[in-house]
Amino acid sequence: MEGSRAGRPEHVGASGDLQAGVAEIAEQVKVLDRLVRSRFGEHAELRGAWASARNVLGPFKPKGEPGAGGSQAPKAA
To answer: What global pTM score does this model have?
Structure first.
């Protein structure tokens, strides 16, 4: 049990680091989205490929967090 208690703060810290990394990646995808829309505005096939590439599932939230649970469709690009 002591090992379990000792590992908990590390787990919480790692989770916070991971969430910060995910937020940074999401911001970069927004920047890329603006660039792709500007560059390939007239090319429906390329825009469709980008929409497919950026459409990933998430973010996933534990059941205890607000807004969690239920089936939600991913946001369209």
So the answer is: 0.50
33/68 Cα distance (integer angstroms) = 26
Q: For 27-62, b where at least 16 C-beta lie within 10 A, e where not — what string? A: eeeeeeeeebeeeeeeeeeebeebeeeeeeeeeeee
The domain segmentation of the chain, as residue ranges, is 24-57
Distance CA 77, CA 75 (A): 6
Longest pairwise C-alpha distance within the chain = 61
pLDDT digits (tens, 9 = 90+) for 43-71: 999 888 888 888 776 666 777 756 544 44
